[in-house]
C-alpha cells in the first residue's frame, strides 16, 4: 500500500513538473505552438474567393496557410531584434509558400495569385488632394 501511494505521489510530481516546463516554453515563445484558426480560415477563404478553388485545393491550401502563418509568427519572434535577417527569412518563407502554391493551384489560378500579390506589394502613391504642397 505504501509503495502504491509513493509511486502515485512520484508520478503526480513528475506530471506537475512537466506541465510547469511546458507553460514556461509557451511563455518564452508566445503564439508559437498554435496559429489562430480564424486567421487561417480568413486567409484561405479570401484566397478561395479570389482564385475559385475546388474543395481539394481549399484543404491543401488551408494546411499550407497554417504552416505559413505559424512559421511567420516564429520568424517575427525569433528575429525581432534583427530586421534585416527577419526580412530575409520572411522572403525565404514566401518563396517556399509560393512553391507550395504552384503545386496546389492551376496555372491560371497561380497567375491570378501572382497578380494579386504584386498589386498588394506595390505602394499606392500619396495623394496631395486637400493638402498643402
Explain how this protein is built:
This protein is an all-alpha fold and 133 residues long. The protein has a domain at 54-114. It has five helices and no strands. It is elongated, with a radius of gyration of 23 Å. The N and C termini lie far apart (88 Å).
Annotation keywords:
133 residues; mainly alpha; 5 helices; elongated
Judged by helices, strands and strand pairing, the structural class is mainly alpha
Q: How much strand? A: under 5%
Q: What is the H/E order?
A: HHHHH
N/C terminus separation: 88 Å
Helix coverage percent: over 70%
Largest sheet: none
Mean of all residue-level pLDDT scores? 81
What would you call the shape? elongated
Number of helices: 5
Query: What's the count of strands?
Result: 0
- Low-pLDDT runs of 5+ residues are none
CA radius of gyration: 23 Å
Signal peptide: 1-20
Biased composition (Polar residues): 112-127
Region (Disordered): 112-133
Keywords: Signal
In short:
Helices cover 77% and strands 0% of the residues.
Give the helices and strands, then pairings.
Elements: H1 2-28, H2 37-51, H3 55-78, H4 83-104, H5 107-121
Region (Disordered): 112-133
Keywords: Signal
Signal peptide: 1-20
Amino acid at each position: 500500500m505504501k509503495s502504491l501511494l509513493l509511486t502515485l505521489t512520484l508520478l503526480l510530481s513528475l506530471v506537475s513538473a512537466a506541465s510547469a516546463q511546458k507553460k514556461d516554453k509557451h511563455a518564452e515563445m508566445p503564439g508559437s505552438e498554435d496559429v489562430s484558426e480564424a486567421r487561417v480560415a480568413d486567409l484561405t477563404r479570401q484566397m478561395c474567393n479570389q482564385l475559385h478553388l475546388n474543395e481539394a485545393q481549399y484543404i491543401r491550401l488551408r494546411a499550407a496557410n497554417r504552416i505559413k502563418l505559424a512559421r511567420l509568427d516564429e520568424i517575427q519572434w525569433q528575429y525581432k531584434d534583427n530586421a534585416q535577417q527577419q526580412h530575409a527569412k520572411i522572403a525565404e518563407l514566401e518563396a517556399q509558400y509560393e512553391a507550395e502554391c504552384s503545386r496546389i493551384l492551376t496555372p491560371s489560378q497561380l497567375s491570378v495569385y501572382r497578380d494579386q500579390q504584386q498589386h498588394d506589394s506595390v505602394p499606392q502613391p500619396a495623394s496631395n488632394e486637400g493638402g498643402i504642397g
